[in-house]
Design brief:
Elements (H helix, E strand, L loop, with lengths): L2 H8 L6 H4 L5 H14 L5 H7 L2 H17 L19 H9 L5 H16 L8 H32 L3 H10 L8
Length: 180
Amino acid sequence: MSLIKEEQKCTPKEITLDMLNTYPSEIVDFVNDEIRSKYGHLDNEKQFLNKLNDYERVAFEFFELDITFSNIKLLEYSYSFNKDFYKNVDVLKDFISKSDFKKKKEFLNIIEDYYKLYRNKNHSNMSIYDSIDLRDSFLKRYNDILINWCNFFDGYLLKNMPEEYKEKLLNKYKKYDVKI
C-alpha cells in the first residue's frame, strides 16, 4: 500500500474541515497581520518575540499555537510539531493561568500534554495506531474548548486593543459602521 493511501486511511478523526480553518476569528488574524507588518518576519524568533509587548505576544503565541494544532497530521508525527513551541508559550500560559477563562485548567493541560507528546522519546517506538489514538484524544479536547476560548479571547483582544490597532481595524470595517 502506498504511503499516501496509508496516511489517508490513518488521518485522525478529529481533523475536520472546520478545524483546518483554524481560529474562527478575524480579530486574531487582524492583530497578527498588524504584528507582521509592524515588526517584519521571523528572521530570529527570540529577537522577534522580544520586540512584542504582552498584548501582541499573547495574540501571536495563540495564533501560532492554533496553527500548529490545526496542522497536525499523523505521518508527519515527528515534524508537525514546532520544535520551538514549548519555550515560546510562556506568555500565553501565564495569561491563561491568570485569566478568568472557565476552562483554563483544561487548556493548560492540553498545552502540557502537547509538550509531553512532543517530548516523548518513545513515540518513534509507538505503533501508528497508538499515535493516532493519542492524536485523536488531543485534538478532540482542543476542539471541545476552542469555541469557548475564542469567545473569551476575542473579548480580551477587543477590550485591550491598542489605539493604533483600533484605528486600523475601524478603517478596515468602516463600510459596516463598526464601533469598538
